[in-house]
Amino acid sequence: MLAQCYYFGMGVEKDFKTAFNIFLELSESKSHSTEAKDWLAMHYFYGRGVKQDTKKAFEIYLEHSKSKSDQQNSAKINLAKFYLNGWVVDQNQKKAIELFSELSKSKSDNKILLMLNLSWLIVMNSEKELLKISIKPFNSI
């Protein structure tokens, strides 16, 4: 994707603003909108090529998490991180665990990432109830 070339500086000079504008245009197209929305949210979150706006990033992930696309799981992982860390929303570890648990039951290619996130949560949290919830979905992996 051309936008990624500008983002990473592959074959062209690295230019986050140009990458953002291409992702913005692609997000409105039917053929590339799902992947482009993930990239847009990341640009907003980190303020790359656009003014940093974590609330806008959250809104994109929230909308995208409800879609029926291949990138839906990626959006849910990022949403869970918002809840886990209290970015834009009140910190809610239980909501984060619910999202991670839901994803662990899907046909996601992101199960390793899910396990890492839940492992971190277990290490950082001593509440036994949260530990029970977070371990259960991974018994089948």
Helix content: 55-70%
Spans where pLDDT lies below 50 across 5 or more residues: 131-141
Average pLDDT? 80
Question: Number of DSSP helices?
Answer: 8
Backbone structural class = mainly alpha
Query: Topology as H/E string?
Result: HHHHHHHH
Proportion of strand residues: under 5%
Q: Which radius of gyration do the C-alpha atoms yield?
A: 16 Å
The N- and C-terminal alpha carbons lie at a distance of 33 Å
Apparent shape: globular
From the structure provided, what is the oligomeric state, counting identical versus distinct chains?
A: single chain
Count every beta strand, where a strand is a DSSP E run of 2 or more residues.
Answer: 0
Q: The biggest beta sheet, please?
A: none
Protein name: HCP-like protein
GO biological process, one term: ERAD pathway
Family: Belongs to the sel-1 family.
Organism: Gigaspora margarita
Describe the structure.
One of its GO terms (biological process) is ERAD pathway. It comes from Gigaspora margarita. It holds the Pfam family Sel1. The protein has helices at residues 2-8, 16-27, 33-46, 54-65, 72-85, 93-104, 111-124, 128-135. The chain is an all-alpha fold and 141 residues long. Helix 2 (16-27) crosses helix 3 (33-46).
